[in-house]
C-alpha cells in the first residue's frame, strides 16, 4: 500500500434516503458493524440512583494458566432502582483499563429482586502478568433493565501495579459514584494530527488535468501522539478509515503499521471522490487507531468527522456523534473549499 496517496471512488444516491455503492464494490455492511464493536464502557443511565453499598471480591493470578481471576462473591445494601416495586436486578461487570475494547468486558449473572445479591462467580482474563501490571481493574455494579437502559449502582477501581498479590482473601469494598470525567468518557487516548480538504465538483477549472467531475474529500493522516502503551515493548499501530454509512471494502482504507512507537508518524493521504456538497452533511469520516497483533487487532481510540446530528440521509444512526471539536473541524472544511484544514483532535472511545 502506498503511504502517499490512495484514491477511492465513493458514490451516493441522493434520490434515496440510503446511500448506494458503486457497481465494483462489495455489498454494504450494517452501519453498526464498525461502531458497534467499540461501544463505550460508560453506556447506561447514571443519574437515576445514588451509588451505595459494598461489594465483596478477591483477586488472584494463576501463573500456570496465565490467567487473571476476579472472584465476585456478593454485594450488600445496593441502591433500589424501582422504588415503586422496591426492587433492583443487579449484576457485576468488569473491564481492564485503559483499553476497554482489548480485553473486553466480563459480567456475572443477574440476580433479580434483591439489594443483597450473592454471586460466587469467577471472571477470568487470559493475560500475561507483565501486561496485567500496567492495567487497572474497573469493577462496577448495574441494575439490569429488560429494555436495555441499565442503571449504574456503583464502582471500584483497582490499580493492579500496586495490588498485594499475596492477598487472595475475599474482602469488602465500598462502592463509589462514577466521576464526572468518566461519565463523559474523558479518558486520554492520544491526539491525532491531521489535515482535511474538500474539492467541490469542477472547482479547479477546465484547464486543470485533475479537475474532479464530482467532489473529493482528502484526508491526510500525519501522526499520532501519546498512544496507550499496552505492552512494555510499546505499541504496533495503524489507522483505519471508513466513510460512514459505507462500511464495505469500497470505503475501507488503512495506513501501514508503525512498530514499537507510541508516537507514530504515518504521513498517509486518502482521497475519496464521488462527494457532492450536499453529501457532506450526511456522511461521516471515521478514523480509528489500532494495535496490531497476529490473532486480532485491538482498538486504541478514534475520531468521527461530521456534523454530529445523529442523522444520516434522514435515518437515525449512533455513529453520527461527533464531538464539538470534530464538528467544528468538519464545518471549517465545508466552508473553505480547496484549502487544507489542519487540526489536533483527541482520540476517544467510540
UniProtKB/TrEMBL annotation:
GO terms for biological process: exocytosis. The keyword Membrane applies. The gene is Sytl2. It holds the Pfam family C2. This is Synaptotagmin-like protein 2. InterPro entries: C2_dom, C2_domain_sf, SYTL1-5_C2B. Gene3D superfamilies: C2 domain (2.60.40.150). GO terms for molecular function: neurexin family protein binding. Keywords: Cell membrane, Exocytosis, Membrane, Repeat. One of its GO terms (cellular component) is plasma membrane. The keyword Lipid biosynthesis does not apply. It is found in: Cell membrane. SUPFAM superfamilies: C2 domain (Calcium/lipid-binding domain, CaLB). It comes from Zapornia atra (Henderson crake). Residues 51-173, 188-320 form the C2 domain.
